[in-house]
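Good morning N.,

You mentioned wanting to compare the apo and holo forms, so I went ahead and generated the holo version with NDP. This is what I fed in:
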Amino acid sequence: MGSAPAGRRALITGITGQDGSYLAEQLLERGYRVYGLVRRLSTPNTRNISHLVDRVELLDGDLHDPASLDSAMRASEPDEIYNLAAQSFVGVSFNQPVVTGEVTGLGTVRLLEAMRSHADRARFYQAASSEMFGKVLVSPQDEHTAFHPRSPYGVAKVFAYWAAVNYRESYGLFVSNGILFNHESPRRGHEFVTRKISDGVARIHLGLAAKLRLGTLSTRRDWGYAPEYVDFMWRLLQAPRPDDFVGATGETHSVEEFVQLAFDRVGISDWKPHVELDPKFKRPAEVDMLCGNATKAKEQLGWVPKVRFPELVRIMVDNDLQLLGAARPAAR
Ligand code: NDP
Ligand code: GDR
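and this is what came out, ligand included:
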């Protein structure tokens, strides 16, 4: 792991999420002073950072609220700003399109404005997404691929992407987009398909559930391992110039392949009786296939993801088995 000059300060929005928690860990290891923006919830959601609360400074704030973003900038005086906060679940974005646009889209502009007012020498990472590519006509997708988002979430991310480019071009700010493809981990939210499968398979194996209900088995994603993707974010802000980069493994796999490998991990080869398709989990418009080309990140950032698809499935299933109290399966 590369290190940074002593005393660097980072502000992370979305620190309680999957990526924010791994990023906070890695920045602390690199010697940063880490500040995290946390919104008020009736039940605090600090599960992912419970082991870090004594080492990071949490600041109250919400991407809806410009005054709170101004205060967070003044309190943290950041050298680096990582904007990871979002309404990040594509499925929900169809039911809550306005909230998704407000937070995932306009929230980015509010944070860029706060940076422009209070931290214009900082470097800004925008969490852009492969969902911006959406209905792809060419594969693999890279930094030159046209956007065709297929959900309110994807639309909001395209808006935020262009806002980031626009603040770079208009005001000369150091603002970069990381266009990351799906990345997963034991800290993934349970509503996302990989965690839903790893948790569901562990429960079925232990006799705690009978069925795994999914929307579709056919869609394909380029799935990587989240800790490697937050290293990408840091590398992007160490580059000499602000720019936009794709982060991906370059492999695409179907939901069905994930299901099959997950059941295989617990010794169930005939998985079909355990899985049901439920239209409730289907989306009004779907992104059928994504596969990224991260050659630019490899060449210019030296970033190469190492965890391959079967290992990712294994990590996630073993984690859920362990959380449910089961013994770790023997190596297969
Ligand atoms: P998560 O859903 O795990 O985390 C989202 C974070 O945003 C949480 O900390 C959440 O806080 C916070 N948040 C939500 N709404 C607000 C708000 N109004 N004000 C302040 N904070 C808010 O996402 P990931 O960690 O998986 O992803 C990080 C970012 O990267 C997101 O922007 C996502 O869209 C993007 N992305 C993710 C990819 C992936 O595969 N994981 C791929 C490409 C992009 P709380 O805990 O309170 O809910
Ligand atoms: P995605 O992730 O939409 O790619 O967005 P998700 O895991 O939700 O879906 C992946 C694919 O699986 C299909 N699917 C199901 N999905 C869910 N959640 N639940 C189901 O039951 C189910 N059945 C099939 C989906 O339809 C889809 O095709 C993630 C998020 O992290 C975004 O924030 C991020 O930008 C993108 O990845 C890159």
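Residues 13-14, 16-20, 37, 39, 41, 45, 62-64, 84-88, 103, 127, 129, 180, 182-183, 189 surround NDP (ligand 1) (CB under 6 Å).

Happy to go through it together on a call whenever suits you.

Best,
F.
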